[in-house]
Amino acid sequence: xxxxxxxxxxxxxxxxxxxxxxxxxxxxxxxxxxxxxxxxxxxxxxxxxxxxxxxxxxxxxxxxxxxxxxxxxxxxxxxxxxxxxxxxxxxxxxxxxxxxxxxxxxxxxxxxxxxxxxxxxxxxxxxxxxxxxxxxxxxxxxxxxxx
Length: 147
Description:
By secondary structure, the chain is mostly beta strands. It contains 1 helix and 8 strands.
């Protein structure tokens, strides 16, 4: 395990509107506000989208198990934002529910907001962390510098 220490910086309250593309709007926000490291909690609803619900098998590099959803699902989750070589890199995990069905996984692609998603972003200052390509896994993973 590696770790880095920092402090809380700015705190943002975000409101995503009906039909917003959730990940695009979050990435645009992070670019505009120059957020390099942050954690976010959110709740609301997604109309449709795609999530990765774990790997198909526990092999490295992993092959994602894609699951699509549609027709409006309640959602809550947590995300991290870290600087990458091409701008902010997002890692968004959530649980989604509709009637008696539940999905949990990593929100991806063009997931679309239904009505509203409310979020609070807590900026992290002084942490020595970024996201970068890991050739072993084929993923953009968190890199902790130092300790």
